[in-house]
Specification:
One of its GO terms (molecular function) is cyclic-guanylate-specific phosphodiesterase activity. By secondary structure, the chain is of the alpha/beta class. It is built from eleven helices and ten strands. Strand 1 and strand 2 form a beta hairpin. The protein binds guanosine-5'-monophosphate (G) (2 copies), sodium ion (NA) and manganese (II) ion. The site of sodium ion (NA) has 4 residues, from loops.
Length: 254
Amino acid sequence: HVDVEQVRKALADGDIVAYFQPQAEFANGKVVGVEALARWRLADGRMVPPSVFVPIMESNGLVEGLTTHMLAEACRWSSRWRQAGLEQLRISVNVSAHNLSGPEVADRYESILREHGLSPEHVILEITESSVMSDTARGLGLLARLRLKGFGLSVDDFGTGYSSLTQLSQIPFTELKIDRGFVGGAPDQPRKRAVIETSLDLARKLNLCVVAEGVETMEEWQLLAQLGCDYAQGYLISPAVPGETLVEAIQRWR
Ligand code: G
Ligand code: G
Ligand code: NA
Ligand code: MN
């Protein structure tokens, strides 16, 4: 059990760190991006999953602190990986709509990037579907502003939230992430495959690129490549790893 004070302290003490999960292009297998995922390791080595601490942050006004921390970590690692010889990666960061407060948020995100010499064109903000609806007008205004600055906007966990089609029609998304619930087992499950095909049709009509999450097997990779997904993310390539071991994880995959 963790309480809000422990969460606050962990964030302040830097005990919550960014791990990075590679995303590879279906066309050629090349890793072209990473998703930053928050990890909290306790002193005894046990990990507290984000499904436990993110909701606590969301309901206690702490999640904006997490987002800016993750953005800054992603920017820092991005320049280290470039120095290590990698091409510039697309960096995806999760954003809770709970922190989609005022327009100043867009300026703050932009200035974090600029401090690290990174342009918003290289950063994708992943918005979980169910979350934007909490304050529609304000949320929409901020997302439009972020898009105008050049940030990519991704619909996370597509197909699992509420009003996903409403949001797709209103928000200037650039990317759709097919939830891993549809990807796992799709090669032998025609109903999952149908959902994936329809999501891809919609994405093409809206000019969105498509990431398939939770790709675990070569059969899933082949099916999704054949259906026309752009990027794969999943244990087949690599789990999320610390920034220090990303280059190694990419080499192991290729
Ligand atoms: O990392 P998994 O390994 O457990 O992540 C589970 C979920 O936790 C993710 O889908 C995401 O919704 C949430 N999550 C992980 N990292 C972050 C983060 O930095 N910010 C927010 N808001 N959510 C995160
Ligand atoms: O933001 P989001 O909920 O989409 O984060 C992705 C979640 O999926 C993280 O918890 C991550 O650890 C997890 N994940 C990543 N790749 C795989 C995979 O191949 N299989 C499964 N079951 N989970 C995965
Ligand atoms: Na995500
Ligand atoms: Mn997701």
